[in-house]
Structures are given as C-alpha cells and as structure tokens.
Amino acid sequence: METVVIGRHVYGNLYDCDRDVLRDETRLIQIVRNAARIANATLVSVNTYKFGANGGLTVFAIVAESHISIHTWPEHGFATVDVYTCGNTDPEAAFNYIAKELNAQRVEVFRGDRSLRR
Known about the structure:
The protein has helices at 19-23, 25-38, 91-101, and strands at residues 3-5, 7-15, 43-50, 57-63, 66-73, 78-86, 106-113, 116-117. It is an alpha+beta fold. The protein has one domain (3-117): 4-Layer Sandwich (S-adenosylmethionine decarboxylase), CATH 3.60.90.10. Strand 3 and strand 4 (57-63) form a beta hairpin. It is elongated and about 50 Å long. The model has no long low-confidence stretch (mean pLDDT 96).
C-alpha cells in the first residue's frame, strides 16, 4: 500500500495555562506564527476573533499545509489547540511549543492519521 497524502492531526486540551497569555492577542498571534515555523509549515494568514472585552480569543492560522488554531478561555485558564498539517511537517513540535508558551500545567493530546493510502 502506497501513502499518497501524508496528513497528521495533533490536537488537545491545555489546563491551568497562564491567564494573561490567554488574553493577549498580540502574543497569541506571535505564538501561532512561531508554531507554523517550528512545524516547517508555510504561513498563509493569521486571523483572530475576540469574545468581548474580557473574553477569550480564537487565533487561527491558515498554512499551505492546512491549519493551526488556539481557542482560549482565560477565565478558566483553559485552551484548546489544533494543529493539522500534511506533507513534510511536524505538527507535534508545533503543538508542544504552543503548550509550553501557554505555560500549560496539564496537557491532553490526541493524534489522528489523516493520510491517504492506496
């Protein structure tokens, strides 16, 4: 069986994160940009959405190889992270970098194989 498309999906839940970082739009954008570089992915664009003055944020990067997203709930010190890439990339390294930068005290990580085999 030949692998035609290599796709890896690393996603999870980050607990007891730094609440200040979870609120910091500028910092989260930089974290996502760095994560794309660490994954060896090609950054296409970064968008954000803020949920009210004191609410959480969604930071979503489109990379040529798919996407990276962070969703934050600062009031709970909680974030979810999704890194899905294809090709010669390292989504696991990007996920681990994000968890470290958010200072997550507990991490649940899940992995999915999104490859096409024929």
